[in-house]
Design the sequence.
């Protein structure tokens, strides 16, 4: 008697063979030429695009840097040229300064027979020479007035400040305009438009720039130092008609553009006794010199106070 049928045996053998049959690897798909290089080409394109974007950024940064450097250099060169032009103009105008030369009087002669009549003649010659000198100086001021009808006088401070003074119709005209009318950041020393022309009032205010090259009103910053004040106390103003006024500096301070000193004696502002409590007792006329500080704060000012005693 057969325990298993031949059919069952074959089925069992077949199942065993399937169970222990080694699996053969599936054949890999053979890619055609376009398919083979499609993926690497896409990666290469992304890399190229990435590099291109970086180059654009780097190139833009380089161009921007060159542009900024160029603008900065142009600004520096322009400033240097303006400084040189202003210096040249005011050096030429300094020939009109009352302190650029002094009157030359006849020398005294010593003679054993020098009599009273000779002394009278010599004295007369001295007076004539002095009168001719001041006539010449007024003629020079007339020439300055012909060059600029706003000319009102001359300011001289030791060896530091020696410039013509003007007064415009407002306080902005001469901020960036030289005495001869040239456009320049050095500007001109100018009087507050609310003042009178001959400095004949309680307080007169003069403005000037604190320039890069140390010209114009830059030296007045030194008056913040008491030692400098003691060594350079006098400010001499020669008016348009040849009158000489000597102001003596008694104070200086760092302040702002809204200081009450700017309103003293003008447009019904404060009185001098309120703003200048430390002024000399016998002072009757005051002079204020004002300039900026060149600090980051554009509203900062340096004020120098002087008085006629």
Sequence:
């Amino acid at each position: 008697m057969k325990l298993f049928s031949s059919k069952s045996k074959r089925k069992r053998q077949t199942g065993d063979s399937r169970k222990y049959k080694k699996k053969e690897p599936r054949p890999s798909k053979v890619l055609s030429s376009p398919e083979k290089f499609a993926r690497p080409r896409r990666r290469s394109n992304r890399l190229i695009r990435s590099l291109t974007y970086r180059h654009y950024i780097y190139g833009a940064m380089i161009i921007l840097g060159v542009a900024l450097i160029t603008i900065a250099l142009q600004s520096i060169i322009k400033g240097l040229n303006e400084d040189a032009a202003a210096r040249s103009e005011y050096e030429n105008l300094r020939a009109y300064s009352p302190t650029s030369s002094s009157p030359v009087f006849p020398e005294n002669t010593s003679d054993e027979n020098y009599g009273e009549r000779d002394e009278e003649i010599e004295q007369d010659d001295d007076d004539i020479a002095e009168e001719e000198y001041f006539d010449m100086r007024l003629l020079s001021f007339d020439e300055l007035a012909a060059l600029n009808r706003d000319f009102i006088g001359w300011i001289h401070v030791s060896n530091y400040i020696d410039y013509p003074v003007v007064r415009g119709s407002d306080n902005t005209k001469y901020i960036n305009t030289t005495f001869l009318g040239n456009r320049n950041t050095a500007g001109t020393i100018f009087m507050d438009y609310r003042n009178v022309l001959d400095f004949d009032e309680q307080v007169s205010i003069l403005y000037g720039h604190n320039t890069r090259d140390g010209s114009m009103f830059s030296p007045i910053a030194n008056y913040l130092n008491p030692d400098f004040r003691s060594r350079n106390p006098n400010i001499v103003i020669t008016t348009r008609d040849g009158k000489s006024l000597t102001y003596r500096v008694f104070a200086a301070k760092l302040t702002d553009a809204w200081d009450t000193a700017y309103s003293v004696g003008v447009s019904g502002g404060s009185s001098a006794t309120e703003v200048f409590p430390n002024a000399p007792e016998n002072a009757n006329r005051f002079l204020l010199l004002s300039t900026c500080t060149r600090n980051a704060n554009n509203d900062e000012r340096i004020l120098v106070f002087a008085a006629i005693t």
Observations:
- The domain at 73-99+119-308 is CATH 2.40.260.10 (Sortase; Chain: A;).
- The longest strand covers residues 244-256.
